[in-house]
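User: Before I run my own analysis I want an independent prediction to cross-check against. Here's the chain; please return only the structure tokens and, at the end, one sentence I can use as a sanity check.
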Amino acid sequence: METSELLKKVRQIEIKTRGLSNNIFAGQYHSAFKGRGMAFSEVREYEFGDDIRDIDWNVTARYSKPFVKIYEEERELTVMLLVDVSGSRFFGTRETLKKDMITEIAATLAFSAIQNNDKIGVIFFSNRIEKFIPPKKGRKHILYVIRELIDFEPQETQTDISRVLQYLTNAIKKRCTAFVFSDYIDKGDYRHALTIANKKHDMVAIQVFDERETEMPKIGLVKIKDAESGSEKYVDTDSRNVREAYKQWWEKRQTEMDDAFKRSRVDSVSVRTDEDYVKALIGLFNKRR
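Assistant: Structure tokens:
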């Protein structure tokens, strides 16, 4: 993509997603993703209704009247965006590709994060770690992240979610909140890696998929290409058995994915490319409150 076109696209994404984070997600993000805990702030005189467990006995003894400790949330988080850049991200039968949907959702979360003084980092992955952007703060950093989301070119086309989860576990030492963006079409088994990652970090799974991936249309004999392996074959979509077999494959895969999230205790949301991701994110935030 040419530089002028890229900058224009970055600006368009910034205007839309920063507006969403300002007007819609400002408080909900803060409530949904908590800080590291509570830190002591100050003491004040005891008031009726205060929890007696908060009484500071040293100060109380000094002044001969009860004082309680006041705590504030340690807000600052590190937020990691784990972005699937495999070949299947370029699929889309409506106006929006999966890649474009992931970019907008990731940018919205990034702006929500920096408004809450959180750091943002990114890991692009395929069946390898394609690029690691260390977590930082600030608008300049966010614009760099958006530019990479739009224009990054991976070396590989296949998917290995386990690998990026293992990399996250090893690379990020302190607890973080990590969003994993993918269509979750992965021939491997990532359940064990997801369980381990979620014990150290706060993992959130965001599946982005296209309507046409859920069932095969009846359009005759067509040549289908696997975007990740590059293999091609002809499929007779007029065959009811073919369409039914594909639908069963999709439903089985979705069931296995949902089961993996449930067993790993990972919050998740699925977003279709022709749907409003704002509604989906609000539902995710409300679920975490």
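Sanity check: The two ends are 40 Å apart (CA to CA).
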